Amino acid sequence: MRIDLHTHSTASDGTDTPAELVRAAASAGLDVVALTDHDTVGGYAEAIAALPAGLTLVTGAELSCRLDGVGMHLLAYLFDPEEPELSRERELVRDDRTPRAQAMVAKLRALGVDITWEQVARIAGAGSVGRPHIATAMVELGVVPTVSDAFTADWLADGGRAYAGKHELDPFEAIRLVKAAGGVTVFAHPAAVKRGTCVPESAVAALAAAGLDGIEVDHMDHDTATRARLRGLAADLGLLTTGSSDYHGSRKTCGLGEYTTDPEIYGEITRRATGAFPVPGAGGDARA
Description:
The protein is α/β, with parallel strands linked by helices. The chain contains 9 helices and 8 strands. It has helices spanning 18-27, 44-49, 84-110, 117-124, 131-140, 171-180, 202-209, 224-237, 263-272, and strands at 3-7, 32-35, 56-67, 70-77, 184-187, 214-218, 240-243, 279-280. Strands 1, 2, 3, 4, 5, 6, 7 and 8 form an 8-stranded mixed β-sheet that branches. α4 (117-124) packs across α5. The longest helix has 27 residues, at 84-110.
């Protein structure tokens, strides 16, 4: 089985619609794909309706969190999307995304970048607006060569010249909320230092004690030595280890299935989840 547990669609900051994403996942030879848009479940219905036969969809979300002033992301899988307390927190984060993005546009303009809110809104479309949309606008303007090059201290990285904060969850509270909604939690790309300051690995033990299920080890932002270190940390703490592409369509270079999760780990995630079940494809809408 080939299992990719971290992807994004146009419901947040990916470039594929949810339907395009699941069709692309099937074409890439995946057996299981998780849809984990930022702080939203808005892509679920379209993805399920288009799900090809032979592909299983894991519903999820990537939750925006902050611990001691440092941003981190928590992947939540197979939670009840209607659970009111978690739904309310996701809505608070989403509602703060637009004023936060507008503040970053204003900071970029003050730095001499000829960016406009209209340009960013066009790129985001109906998705939940975020830094990758602003970075894409910067690429369009020739300010940076790639989206990744916008995530530096000069521009959009945490604490960068054009960075602005938003409402984010305390990760301990996020773990509690996801667990209460029947879901499973995995710390996304915990050592992605190229994105900015990371939560110290010493904090992972406290998160594990609070109910964290796993950490994402095999990821494009982790080199070989980092992956080995994270595997050791997970073994010491009894955490699951996952691998994922963090696919964003054409917005990032990583392709679907470039990193994958062991089937036994996937099986354990599904066994722990009580809020929702993986959705097997029934043929879906085959339109391109």
